[in-house]
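Researcher: Please generate the 3D structure of the following complex. Treat every line as part of one assembly.
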Amino acid sequence: MTLQLSNFPHDYVWPDDDLSVIPDWVYTDQAIYEREVERIFHGPTWNYVALEAEIASAGDFIRSNVGPTPVVVTRAADGSIHAFENRCAHRASEFCRELTGSAQEFICPYHQWTYDLQGNLIGVPFRRGMAGKGGMPADFKMQDHGLRKLNVTTHRGVVFASYADDMESFPDYLGPEVLREFEATFDGRKLRLLGHYRHSLPGNWKLYHENLKDPYHATLLHTFLVTFGLLVVGNRSLMLADKSGRHGVMASAKSDAKTLSGDAKKEMRSYKEGLTLHEPRFMDFIEEFDSPWSVTMATIWPNLIVQREMNTLGVRQIVPSGPHEFIMKWTMFGFEGDDEAMTRHRLRQGNLMGPAGFLGLEDNEAIKFVQDGMQRVPNGKHLVKLDPKQTGSADTLISEAAIRAMYKHWREAMGL
Amino acid sequence: MLDSPKPIVHDRRIEALLLHRDLDEFNSAYAAALDEQRVADWAEMFTDDAFYVVISRENADRNMPVGLIYCENKGMLLDRANAMKTEMFAPRYLRHIIGSPQVLGEELNGDIRARANYVVVQVLFDRPEAKLHQVGVYYDKFRRVGDGIKLAERRCVYDNLLVDNALCLPV
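Model: Done. Output below.
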């Protein structure tokens, strides 16, 4: 009897060319991950790197990432914003170690090569050697050895960088519908920073996008959303995808859960009748946006989530560190002009989100469970079949059409 | 000769020792409540107007108020305790280890200011290691209530900026 070996799993052929079945190697394979860094994060994409409010004055800088790659984002003396790799042109040392700060120039601590705030090399010690000995070759030109600079754009106070020099404008990149939701959150008021969360997640970075293109889970996993009427079947809601399929916005309007039908409650085991809050202000929605939605979660390809969960606001930056892990950096904010009561309301409501949030911690755990589930079963596949006639936007929560649209785009970008 | 009543000795060192013992006992009971995941009992160790926050050292140092958990009164602690009954997360064991408290002073209203280092170790059931989940400092205000003491404020300032996935239970 001969042992039948399956084909190598890494032939990277999408099963039956069918978007409603996703193979596990999309999430677990090192070569796929490396190609994602090259073709997506370092490819023709606008990557979130900072908020302008974090580098408000000339000389301010912040460490950030484009994909896994460390970069520094600066504001130069003329007010312009720059992004460059945090890697010395000499011996590759990651020279900037502070999370954020203010500087006149950057000096690599190893051999003191010095760069200006735009990433130009402006100093090499002993460049001409000493007493006619040593030093750089005579034809060494400092202008050829600056830091790797990235293309930078900003929109409504949000800073993006790209390895591609011929990028479309940011509004064109988002498309009109996703741009409208982006601008509903970043409505022109100046941002006031409230702080960060940082955490690592033991899962593939794309699962975070998928989680926010999956309104189905929101009605089932999250007791808090359901019981307090934030997002339940029957709410006015929309799962929006842009034309390319890469961006999305999950939007919903808060309703009173008491109006839920008995049938809907039965389907949702997470609905808890009689759960009440000692501090009901926690779930208040104070109207402040020109939008029909009380909640929008925008997934901006490839590394940004814009959270407008009623009045708790933040951006989440995805920093992948391999196929099985990524880091999330959250920057929470309010607006200048918020009074003390509004700031405290945002902070109280922040208990919904982040690594200890009533919703956030459940999402993190669910993503870990998915990655765990993939790792010990060879050649596995996932199902994303809900709402089969659509690929892209959906007007029902019981849909995975936006996930399929994302993979349509992903396959094109990856050439798979 | 008649015995004269012994004068009451106010020895500051003995008072300090007794206070230190009270805080130490309190922190032991606090750790036990959380280790045993009796979150409602944990909430009852605070005054009604208590402030509780778990905040990164990064935010605390920059006067940024965002916390992983941010509670402005005991009601919010009780809400979290209730939520823990329905929250979805993998089962786990946690161990809170609290260092010896240091009394820092007294507020005008009599609250006692103190601090103590802490570590929280987490064990998931399918991994051999006990992972250091949190390491930080409690900055506290204790208040005498009846026979005992309660927390009027506990600010948990953690050093491990990059949290391991999720903080499922209080610190």
